[in-house]
Amino acid sequence: MNKAIQAFLTGMFITFILDFFLFLGILLNYINFYNIELYYNILFADNQNGYLFFGLTLILGYIIVYLNNYKISLLVTGVLSFLVLLTLFQGIGHSVGEALFMKKETILETSKRTYSGDILYDGREYITFYEHNLNKIIKISKKDLKK
After folding, report:
1. What is the dihedral of CA 89, 91, 93, 94, to 10 degrees?
2. Which residues are CB-contacts of 89 (< 8 A; sequence separation ≥ 6)?
């Protein structure tokens, strides 16, 4: 039983570090690029996929604690770390941010106006939107949107 808890906690620790650097790369190269007003903690908490997090926690914990092959453990954690750290490079971090958050060619309607463009980030209270007709980034309150 003690080894199972150790595997779970080890996997969670490694997954947390990987997530930290993934979201840091997205923050630096996508969120800051578009000047989206968003704190790192909110980005991290709101966009965390629980199933993926705990799935990766269990897999990494099993590989590190139960497999007694250090080469496989090091290879798996090394490759995952390398891939996540790639988001710290501008082009890759921006592309990952676009893939996760951007919704192209979207139409949003409020009681006053219809907007046509790309959703850059869909936050808690506001949507950061690139309006094609205005050629500028605007914030639209979710309260103002028609359902």
Report:
1. 150
2. 25, 29
Cα separation of 65 and 71, whole Å? 13
pLDDT digits (tens, 9 = 90+) for 88-147: 999 999 999 999 999 999 999 998 899 999 999 999 999 999 999 999 999 999 999 987
Enter the pTM of the model. Answer: 0.91
Tokens found for residue 139: 């914030």
Distance between CA atoms of residues 7 and 80, nearest Å: 18
Asked if residues 119 and 103 have their Cβ atoms less than 8 Å apart, the reply is yes
> Can you name the residues that pair with 38 across neighbouring β-strands?
none
